[in-house]
Structure formats: C-alpha cells, structure tokens
Amino acid sequence: MPWCDDCAKFWNPNSMPPDGTCPTCGQVIADVPDTAVPWHFWLLLGVLVLYLGWRVVQGVQWLADGGSPFWAITSIAVTAAAIGGFVWWWLRRRRAAGDAPGPTE
Ligand SMILES: [Zn+2]
Predict the structure, then answer these.
(1) Which residues surround ligand 1, an ion (CB under 5 A)?
(2) Is residue 45 part of a domain?
C-alpha cells in the first residue's frame, strides 16, 4: 500500500497513475508495476492458434467430405476474411502506434 509523506495519505494502487506517482502531488511513491506480458502467455496463444487453425482445417475437410463443397468454400472464404481482417487491424494498430506523436493523425 503506497504511502505519500507530503499528503500523509495511503493510496490504493488501483487509484494511482501507472507511473507510481501520487495522484495529488505527483511525487513518486511506488515502484512502477511490471506490466510486461509473460513469455508463457505468448506460448499459450501460439499453441491455441495452431490448435484452432487445425480444427478449422478439419472442419473444412468434414464439410467437403460430407458432399457440401459450397459450405466448405464459404467457410474457407470466411476464415480467410477473418485472418485478413485481423492482419489488417494489427498492421494499422502498429502503424498508428509508431506515428502517434505525428501531426497528421
Ligand atoms: Zn502526495
């Protein structure tokens, strides 16, 4: 529980700015919390993407084997659009983060 000497007050970490300063006087009263994403989160995310991707492939195979090529092609198109949309969003987000201080946006 961070304590500010100048304000003589305890602060709830959730009500403080993320840089560890006192909300009233701005003095640094707490360590900056470690907000980096742990490596095993990305490992888990990668495994999840591989697993779900394989399940999508199996689903398309199941549709094609069941004699409904229309739904197989439709599901491939929807999956491709979803992946393309995600990549588009991700690239836009990266570009926006890089150009954030620029005067054009
Ligand atoms: Zn203070």
Answers:
(1) 4, 6-7, 22, 24-25
(2) yes
- Domain residues for the domain of 28 are 1-33
pLDDT in tens, 47-92: 999 999 999 889 888 888 887 888 888 988 998 999 999 999 999 9
pTM > 0.90: no
Ligand 1 centroid, distance to 25 Cα (angstroms): 4
DSSP, residue by residue, the chain: --EETTTTEE--GGGS-TT-B-TTT--B-SPPP--PPPHHHHHHHHHHHHHHHHHHHHHHHHHHHTT-HHHHHHHHHHHHHHHHHHHHHHHHHHHHHHTTTSS--
